[in-house]
Amino acid sequence: MSSSDKNKNMDEIEHSIERRLNYERASVKCMRTLLEPGSIDNILPRILNIVHRVVDNSRTYIFKNELDPDLGLCMSQIYEAVSYGIEPQIDNPELQYLSYNEATPTLLTVLESRQHFAHLVEELDDPERTILSEQGILSVLIIPIYAGKDFWGFIGFDDCVKAREWDENDIDLLRMIADGIGEFISHRKAENELRESEERYRALHNATFGGILIHDKGRILDCNQGLVDMTGYSKEELLANDSFTIVTKESKHIVMEKLASRSEEPYEITGRRKDGTEYPIRVQAKNIPYKGKQVRVTELRDITEEKESEKALKESEERFKALHQGSFGGIFIHINDIIIECNQGLSEITGYSQDELIGKKGITLAAERCRDKILDVIATDYEEPFEVIGLRKDRTEYPLKVQAKTIPYKGKNVRIVEFRDITERKESEKALRDSERKFMNYLENAPYGILILDEHGNYLEVNKTACKLTGYDENELTQMNISDIIAPESLITAGQSFDELKTRGYTSTELQVTHKDGSVSWIRRDGTKLSDNRFILFSSDITEMKKAEHSLIEAKMLAEHNNRIKSEFLANMSHELRTPLTAVIGFSDILQEGVAGELTEKQLGYVDHINKSGNHLLEIINDILDLSKIEAGKMELECEDFNVSELIDETLKSMYPMSGKKNIKLYLRNNINNGNVHADKIKIRQILYNLLSNAIKFTPDNGEVFISIEKTENGIQVSVTDTGIGIPSEMQDEIFSPFTQVDASSKRRYGGTGLGLALVKQFVEMHNGKVWLESEEGKGSTFTFTIKNQKKDD
Ligand code: ADP
């Protein structure tokens, strides 16, 4: 070996040793860099620069793999280091998302078997050869990067200056660095995953929905923000205390039991906040190992809302059940208009069976023209009742009242809808309207004027007749006051009547009103108080009635006047007649007695006639005089004490000559102990005389007439009974009127004037008594009268 060869060898050995040293230094530097904290983006470019400098090639780069669903495994260049004068490829789009299978299938096979790829480009086959030579690459070394088991990417070295042969040193160094990078990446990946999971855990831990605590036999070792929010204690306070401070005393026992049994089942207790307020909580605990110990991780959840909605749900379910079972209407629950439940009432109303209704659209139960309205109601959650037209299964329609409410039901918000068939109500409303119309029609055309007024007397409403009565039209009247149409002479009465209406609630009066044309008419007005301080008046025109009444009064007054004149005339006349008659009777008596000389038989007969006729005339005149006196109010009682039995006895005796002539048995049938009365003796005698003389007169020969006497509470009752001809029933009331006799023939047969019973009646009534008769034709009559004891002063 020549010395120059030797020198050359020495240089090469020196150079090789130096390169090796450089390579080792670089690898140490790389390893140290890889151990530094920092992100992949910060570390890997620095590694690439170290390696690039020591290898001294044209370009060094790292590609990262990505799996594309269409292209398969792809590579993208992510970092690059280039030497001066070499074109960088970092922005070359062709080196992004490049499919291994399409661009470099051989490379893929090599790298996947964890081998390196070291070639001179000209020796390569296509497509690798074309793609690399296009970038001006003469020589290439590519080493796979594995992150753990995953083929992550590769690190590559190009030489564009010379066709460089890669030696063992290059390959070993770069392999070591690629492995370092792989390990670095897989470590960072694990770290990231850990950090992410820690962040997730922390987020979970601090989530506000619940309190989480880790405790050892009740002593709190750790807790989250949720527990702080829930309990009102700070985290420091919680950690300084045991877990029993956050629950009530009663709940503490439950918690201790659960602790002792190491139960992992959820249970409910009552929590107690720092401010003393209590709230329901649900607890779930798990036993876990923590820092070498078995501890319990407990989750606490504030279930106030849950409890409240549970309670509301229960209430609403109960309400629903009550409604459901009530028979008064149709009820259903729908979600988005689909009926999910309904009662029997709904099937009765709609004609569908319950099975048919479930699943049906609620809207189809209403007539089509009403559906928009219902949809509006549903959309606005409207809860007031409204009316639509219902549609039955048989397509018939009916008026329907609907009310819907949104309620929680089995954990959801649903609409509960109540249907009510209001056909009957509608019908009765119509009937009411009809009857109101009819009634209004009646009112309007009533024969009364109907006027409604307020408490000040202003007319509010009037009917047609009221207008007719006053001459004013409706508009005019409703602008007027009650006093405006009253005639001046009735103003005081009208005022009193309106006061009475207001205070007593009703009034009834007769008034004169002035018609619009000035004429005055009489009206009768009845008023009643209505509600709201309003009054209703019924008015009717009584002008004609008033006129008739007036003429009646006038006629009566005239009649009374005439009667009085007649009575006075009669009284005077009777008096004037009696005086000459007394002379006729008196002188005929004297002639009969023969004081003025003996009379012949014939003369005596004539004088007897004169005397009898005179006496008869005197009787008649006396009766007329008495009746006239009574009618003229001039007859008065002259009372005294006397014994009625004695008076009857006396009267009977005076009648014997009369009864004897007809052989009539005349007697007093019974007597009383004390027959004393205070009365007008003369008039009682007259009564007895009139009744007895009638009885004898109308009783045939050999008959019977008797008197019965009874005491009454304050007087006496006397009956005169005969066995005579009797009185037909149709005449029995009349015979007490003056000049009444049963018939003309009787007048002839029995004589008389028809004044006797009229006088009896008047005298009895003057004694506050009564007279009546019982009689049967052909069998006889009984006349009975009562008289009352008169007051001594009279
Ligand atoms: P007078 O007897 O003068 O006709 P009265 O007033 O006493 O008038 O009687 C009226 C009429 O009543 C009599 O005319 C007679 O028709 C009838 N009357 C009265 N008393 C009796 C009687 N006891 N029985 C039958 N009829 C009688």
From TrEMBL:
GO cellular component, one term: plasma membrane
EC number assigned by the record: 2.7.13.3
UniProt KW keywords: ATP-binding, Cell cycle, Kinase, Membrane, Nucleotide-binding, Phosphoprotein, Transferase, Two-component regulatory system
Top-rank taxon, per record: Archaea
Subcellular location: Membrane
Presence of keyword Transcription regulation: no
InterPro entries: GAF (IPR003018), GAF-like_dom_sf (IPR029016), HATPase_C_sf (IPR036890), HATPase_dom (IPR003594), His_kinase_dom (IPR005467), HisK_dim/P_dom (IPR003661), HisK_dim/P_sf (IPR036097), PAC (IPR001610)
Gene3D superfamilies with a match to the protein in the record: 1.10.287.130, 3.30.450.40, Histidine kinase-like ATPase, C-terminal domain, PAS domain
Domain PAS per the UniProt entry, residue ranges: 196-259, 339-360, 435-490
Pfam families to which the protein is assigned, alphabetical: GAF, HATPase_c, HisKA, PAS_9
Entry annotated with the keyword Ribosomal protein: no
Single GO molecular function: histidine phosphotransfer kinase activity
Domain PAC stretches: 507-554
Catalytic activity: ATP + protein L-histidine = ADP + protein N-phospho-L-histidine
Coiled-coil regions listed in the entry: none
Domain Histidine kinase, residue spans: 572-791
PANTHER family: OSMOSENSING HISTIDINE PROTEIN KINASE SLN1 (PTHR43047:SF72), TWO-COMPONENT HISTIDINE PROTEIN KINASE (PTHR43047)
Name by which UniProt lists this protein: histidine kinase
Gene source species: Methanolobus vulcani
Lineage of origin: Archaea, Methanobacteriati, Methanobacteriota, Stenosarchaea group, Methanomicrobia
